[in-house]
């Protein structure tokens, strides 16, 4: 089970690293989902920094379980806030379900990683 959770954490970490870099590197008005929802460029970059830090923490799950657990908790809060934002603006489809699925995966990692490392 530990190998599976570590693999899921690494894949999610890579996803958040790429997503965070995309938010940070774009010049001018970012063409990201956050920008499409009306966030300012500074807010988009802030979200990108949080995603980048969370992705780096998840990617280190094999070496430092504690940082992966903290990163999974932080990314759970970030994606739960994204779900709440999209739900309050009555958006449906992928914009609503993607944060919900991601938040669920982050919650499973947050709970599962510490339990899998217990010997």
UniProtKB/TrEMBL annotation:
Organism encoding this protein: Streptomyces toyocaensis
Subcellular location: Membrane
Name of one Pfam family that matches: DoxX_2
Entry keyword annotation includes Transmembrane: yes
Domain of life where this protein originates: Bacteria
Sections of the chain in a coiled coil: none
Presence of keyword Membrane: yes
Protein name: DoxX family protein
Family annotation (InterPro entries): DoxX (IPR032808)
Membrane topology, record value: Multi-pass membrane protein
Spans through the membrane: 60-84, 96-115
GO cellular component: membrane
Protein keywords: Membrane, Transmembrane, Transmembrane helix
């Amino acid at each position: 089970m530990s190998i599976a959770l570590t693999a899921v954490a690494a894949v999610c970490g890579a996803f958040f690293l790429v997503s965070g870099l995309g938010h940070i590197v774009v010049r001018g008005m970012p063409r990201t989902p956050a920008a499409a929802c009306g966030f300012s460029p500074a807010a988009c970059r802030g979200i990108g920094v949080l995603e980048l830090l969370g992705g780096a923490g998840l990617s280190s799950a094999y070496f430092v379980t504690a940082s992966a657990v903290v990163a999974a908790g932080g990314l759970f809060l970030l994606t739960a806030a994204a779900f709440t934002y999209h739900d309050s603006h009555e958006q449906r489809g992928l914009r609503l379900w993607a944060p919900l699925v991601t938040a669920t995966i982050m919650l499973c990692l947050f709970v599962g990683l510490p339990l899998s490392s217990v010997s």
